[in-house]
Amino acid sequence: MEYASIAIMEPSFEMWMCFLTDIHVKALELDALSTSHMMELHINQPSEHKDTFDSLSSSKGAAILRMLEAYVGHEIFREGLIDFLKRYAYGNATTSEFWNTMEEISGKPIASIMTSWSKQVGFPLVRIVSSRYEHNCRHIKIHQEHFRADSSVITDIPNGLWMIPISIAIGADPNTVAKEIVMDKRSVTFKLNQITQADWFKV
Question: What 3-state DSSP class applies to 183?
Answer without folding.
Answer: strand
